[in-house]
Amino acid sequence: MDMLLNPLHRRHRLRDDIPVMPGAFPLVGHLPAIVCDLPRLLRRADRTLGSHFSLDFDPAGQLMTCLDPDAFALLRHKDVSSALIEEIAPEILGGTLVTLNGSAHRQARDGIKAAFLPSGLTEAGIGELFEPVIRARVQAWRDRGEVTILPETGDLMLKLTFYLMGIPGKDLPEWHRKYRQLLQLMLAPPLDLPGTPFRRGRAARDWIDAQSRQFIRDARAHAGPLRYKDMNKMQTGSTLHDDQTGVSALDGLGAQAPGASGRLLPEIWMLDGTKRVEQALARLLCAEDDGETELMAAMRYPTLHGGKRTRALLCPAAGALTDTPAYMLDLVGAAIEMMHACTLVHDDLPAMDDDVLRRGLPTVHVKFGEAAAILVGDALQAHAFLTLASLDAPGDIRIALVRELAQAVSAEGAAGGQAMDLSLVGKHVEVGRILAMHRMKTGALVRASVRMGALCTIVEDAAHAELYCALDQYSTCFGLALQVVDDILDATADKATLGKTPGKDAAAQKPTCASIMGLQAARQLVADLFRDAGDAIAPLGPRAERLAQILQRANAIC
């Protein structure tokens, strides 16, 4: 034999209609060939059996192997999850670790994946953390001359993984030893006698299980009920939460990882949050519900075709202050986006701002007609309230959310601000009136977006008065800044940048902060507002990090 395969084992057999590679040894299967020359073994299996086959790890079972390039492309696709793979091939993956993929598993996996992306590792300073360990190991290899690369690199990766988990250096040898004993359990004959690899492997498994359970208990205790006065004591950033328990999937890692923050990078959670809200919008505004009209298609048009989703992201950013389930924040964020789209559709109507472009596309009344645009706005508003009323939440929370969103678009909010905006056309007014109008027309919905994220789990009462005061100050300053920026861009940006018609305010003789204060003073006002918004949430500590990150993103764009 030209590789370590059993010449007596030539029988071809199938497992779940997939061929098993012949040449396995008793007890150890194909492990000798795998350790000595895995690439050669895979090439032979591919040549003789095809791109799908199983390798034998007897008595641990078989490992299904796939060398099809299309399969690799599928597994790398962003929308492919373990649950989907199990659904496609349950007879292959049923009962394996791959299928243990509930919401908590997915969130923990996705959160950790974000932290382990190159950008996340770079920000956490992992290179500096690992450099001395790797340098020492490479130098040891040089001194030894001949190195068995597969076991050595495996040993190094195991050490680095334990180190990153926050296991103290003095405990690393014990973890390493237990892990290697656990691996022996896969190969050991089931002979349960003192001193045998089987007995040692089971003891190692129980030890690792006990350590892991303690790790989870510590994470749960760390992510317990939170009050305003405790927020500035927290040492970890906000994270994804378990849908069922509300326990953070990353708090333990973030609290213990040496030199690593454990937080999610802003671009990661913002992209994920945007995707989740857009998926919720697509479900809530189902295209199949159109019947004989185009109303649902027209409703999907302004909600699912672009947008920064700033308001929808403010909701989970505020929800990160508490243990709000992600699915609830998705639906509340979708309701906010539907209401925001409603205000934009009506704002673009000929009787209002009369705009033909929005987000670089024809406005709803241009594409579907003015009557349809009015109906789209009306229906989106109704669907926003229906979404909140149908939440799987206590009645008092649903009432609070509905009241908050209704207040934001009432005569004291966006509708009143739009009326004031129309009444000021062609007039010379003080900047104070412009700012009051902006607080109503734009700021009210921004304020509601922040407050609704908190209201999902924290009742607004005397015990939480300081929290809501901080959130109100943040959202008031942030919402006003966004509208002043819009005034500035209308006077300075082109159509491609704006996604809508530039210079309309001046053409319509509408007074704005830019026209009354001047561009330089308006820009300074924006800087001051962003600073004040950041100061407002500073007492909330690291749990308000996502609110601060949204502020930083908006500031960078401006």
What would you report as the Rg, rounded to the nearest angstrom?
29 Å
Parts with pLDDT < 50 across at least 5 consecutive residues: 94-109, 222-264
Mean pLDDT: 75
CATH homologous superfamily classification of the largest domain: Farnesyl Diphosphate Synthase
Second CATH tier, the architecture of the largest domain: Orthogonal Bundle
Major pleated sheet: 2 strands, antiparallel
Structural class: mainly alpha
Strand neighbour order, sheet with most strands? 1-2
Q: Compute the number of structural domains.
A: 2
What's the β-strand tally?
Answer: 6
Please bin the fraction of helical residues. 55-70%
What is the CATH C level class of the largest domain, in words? Mainly Alpha
Q: Helical element count?
A: 26
**Cα distance spanning the termini:** 69 Å
What is the CATH fold-level name of the largest domain? Farnesyl Diphosphate Synthase
The backbone outline, from C-alpha atoms, is: elongated
Taken as a percent bin, the fraction of beta residues is: under 5%
Polypeptide structure, described:
This protein has about 550 residues and is mainly alpha-helical. It has 2 domains: about 105-265, no CATH class; about 265-315 and about 325-555, Farnesyl Diphosphate Synthase (Orthogonal Bundle), CATH 1.10.600.10. Helix content is about 65%, strand content about 5%. It has helices spanning about 30-50, 70-75, 80-90, 90-95, 105-115, 120-125, 125-145, 150-165, 170-185, 195-220, 250-255, 265-285, 295-305, 310-320, 325-345, 365-370, 370-390, 395-410, 415-425, 430-455, 465-490, 495-500, 505, 515, 520-535, 545-555, and strands at about 15, 20, 50-55, 60-65, 355-360, 360. The strands form 3 sheets. It has a two-stranded antiparallel ribbon with strand order 1-2. A two-stranded antiparallel sheet has the order 3-4. A hairpin with a 5-residue loop joins strand 3 and strand 4. Helix 14 (about 310-320) packs antiparallel against helix 15 and helix 18 runs antiparallel to helix 20. The longest helix is centred in the C-terminal third of the chain and has 28 residues, at about 465-490. The radius of gyration is 29 Å and the shape is elongated. The chain starts with 12 loop residues before the first strand and ends with a helix. The model is unreliable at about 95-110 and about 220-265 (pLDDT under 50).
